[in-house]
Amino acid sequence: MPAPHRRLRPLAVLAAAVALAVTGCAAAVPAAPAVPPPDPVTWTGCGPGLECGTLEVPQEYTDPGGPRITLAVMRHRATDPQRRIGTLFFNPGGPGVAATDTLRAMPATAGSPGTFGPEVLARFDVVAMDPRGVGASSGVRCRTDAERATAAASTAADPAVPGGAPLPALLAEARALAEGCAAHGDPAFLASLSTDNVARDLDRLRAALGEETITYYGISYGTVVGPMYATLFPDRVRQMVLDAPVDTTLWTGDPLEFLDEVAVASERTLDAWFDACRTEGTAVCPVGDGDPAAAFDALVAGLERRPAPARAVEGLAPAGVVDGAMLLETARGAAGDRTLWPVLTTALATAQRGDGTLAHLLYRNLTVSPFGVPTATQEQHTAVRCADWTTPADVAAHTAAAERAVGHAPRIGTRAAYSALACAVWPAPNTDRVTAPLTGAGAPPTLVVGGRLDPVTPHTWAKRTADTLEQAVLLTREGVGHGSYGTDPCVDAAVEATLLDTTLPAAGTVCTPPPATTRPGAVPGG
Question: What is the largest CA-CA distance in the chain?
């Protein structure tokens, strides 16, 4: 959601190879029973400038005396403690992305969305919490390592078929995933993974740190956590920024429409790459003879008939092959990131010559949510969204949605089709999740940052988020990309003024970075 945001390795690496109590309520949101104050976090050094600890929380806040789970937390202390403002919490998306991994990798991810600037790091203690089910916190597991490896190397998906396979096979796969999740863990734990519990966990951490209020930055799925927190605990928010926001009404209420709109957003960014490639010409973008879209479709079909071999890239990807479905997924991911447009050009051009190495490298390292991929991260992503979503159990509804998605997004719609089936057969129904509108009523004004061509969270969602929140200001970033803060000086200035000084930009502010290019070897924005 995406993430849906996933960067397990800095994108620069890929380009170089050619990322005190929990109570409170709002209107229509029930209050949880009182929970005793948490113990302070015991911190130990765990890396340059980093401290790590754990936090114990109730598995279910409706049963505060029941089972407990353990959450992994990490802190980067303010580098200028004399000017320290407070604690900044963040969620990097997914769901399924470990915030602690993101914080640890942050020195190597300058220029990537969601990377905090030096002044923010100077003025705040930045605290990462791996949400329940994710990363080093009490986790979700649905497949064995062997099953993951087999799925990751599979070339069985057919890019011309909605969902990649006939419906009976998709249903069997969905049931196997759901049953695997239940077999590897307690269904009651799976049912507890909803975002309202994540927000309550965040407030437990606030209390454990002795903070009266928090500052919060969320990107992608983190923009579900933020409004949930602001709705449950509006008086505990100092300031909030939501970057690449999810439409929370769709997230909880209509996941099939949610997936359809994501598919359309991804299709638009791929179309934008085609348009730029055609406009820049074959001397810059040697994919096709003036018609890169037709050349791409032909390449996908050709690789489906005869996959291209891929050499191993030490430390990044094993040897393998690239088929049409893999290439389509690679293009979906890379076209949605303007910094990877030149890399995508090279990957497609080399694949046309029968060398799938770069496309395979991107496929193995860049695949992002919200559509199913055979990784541990996707297992966690599925478990969280199944705890949050109101998913139809009727397979006919999924079939109708698949047909709509393919009609709206002929290339990417096949990836979206049936990708909520696991939630339709999920073994751990969550009957007490918060489904009320996430208005953040009573919280300070929120800065909402939306990209005009975001491949995962379309700009219309940013508008809806700003409209749903009781107080919000919308800033728009032109161009392609999922997430804006950390990628553009104009956006960075607005976000940091909001976080540091609680000074929001004027409503309707638009930031316009330099246009993206498909030219191989180009420096984005240079």
Answer: 68
